[in-house]
Amino acid sequence: MFRDRALVAEGSRIRRMAPLAAPVAWGLVAVAWKVGCPLAQRPGLPMRLASGIVFLAVGTGLVLGARRGLQRELARVRAVADATQRVLLRSPPARLDGLAVAAGQLSASRGAVVGGDLYEATATPYGVRIVIGDVRGHGLAALGAVVAVLGSFREAAHDEPELAGVLRRLDRALGRHLRERAREEHPARAGRSPEHPAAEEFVTLLLLEIRADGLVFALDCGHPGPYRLGPRVEAVPVGEPLPPLGAFPLPDDLVPYPATRLRPGETLVLHTDGAEEARDRRGRFFALDAALEGAAGEAPAALVRTVHTALLRHTGGRLTDDVALLVVRNDRVRVPAQPAEPGLRRTRPAPSPH
């Protein structure tokens, strides 16, 4: 096994050096010509010009070869990063338990799609559970926290009967990731947990549960609330915000907030703060609510594309933060009979005429 690894490493080194082979060969020929050729030893301007041209050609070849090698290496790194991002932020199923779903992301990292935003939606026995979050920072450095949170959500969403239990699992997973990172960055502390593991790294996060009757319950950790597209576009309250994950411990009492009821035909739009904080050249913020009003009635996938296009037009293609959108439309034909919506008075059903 170790021999195979050594062979792979050796092959990788050979591939990286391949673009420099021709310029190096030219350089050796030039040095040999300068040192061993009698013509090169003759004084005079013509010989000096010839020598200068030869060495200029060699230097140019070395620079171009190194540049080509770096471009190929950068292309390989971007391909790996793009593949990693597609695995992490995989497209949600188009339909989940009668809900139409679509999602998409724009990255602030130039030339890449890697970002610090995360989202996932999955159907569980307890309802459709959705998470959307934003890791402080963006790019490759944020991927570790994205992996920790999404990996935990994909398990906990199915295992935990209570939404509060899901959030606590995410918090523990992120805490383990931050402690491991802190040990790697401060090896002198090996064997004991740092007092403030990656103290400035945290994740804002919104956790939703959409039940069979359309009731939406939320746990919000410092993340922007969603919009509901119905007869009008309106912001959905998500209750008193909890601290972002990784910044402070969660409180002992976690009670999901009854946010709204998503009726048949209505749409819920979840987003990260990069959408509403995007600015144009004159410093004006992007009007997300106005963009949603213009896209009302569109299918979820089309709505994501419309908002992304409007965002890029508003900023001139220069995003300063990652932007993620997740859109859910209630396509259920009939809402099953369920207990009354929180805060609403129950009414006695009318007697049957038979």
Give structural notes.
The chain has 354 residues and is α+β, with helices and mostly antiparallel strands. 42% of the residues lie in helices and 19% in strands. The chain has 9 helices and 11 strands. The strands form 2 sheets. Strands 1-2-11-10-7-8 form a 6-stranded antiparallel sheet. The N terminus and C terminus are likely disordered.
Strand order of the largest sheet: 1-2-11-10-7-8
What is the number of strand segments? Answer: 11
- Please, how many helices? 9
Helix share bin: 40-55%
Instruction: Give helix and strand order, one letter per element, not per position.
Output: HHHHEEEEHHEEEEEEHHHE
Class derived from helix and strand content: alpha+beta
Mean pLDDT: 79
General shape: elongated
The description of the largest β-sheet is: 6 strands, antiparallel
In terms of DSSP E residues, the strand content is 15-25%
Low-confidence blocks of residues: 1-5, 335-354
Radius of gyration: 29 Å
Summarize the structure.
This protein has 354 residues and is an alpha+beta fold.
Q: Which terms summarize this structure?
A:
354 residues; alpha+beta; six-stranded antiparallel β-sheet; five-stranded antiparallel β-sheet
Describe the secondary-structure layout.
Blueprint: H1 2-17, H2 21-36, H3 38-41, H4 45-88, E1 95-96, E2 99-106, E3 117-124, E4 127-135, H5 143-159, H6 163-185, E5 203-210, E6 215-221, E7 227-229, E8 233-235, E9 257-261, E10 267-271, H7 273-277, H8 288-295, H9 300-315, E11 323-330
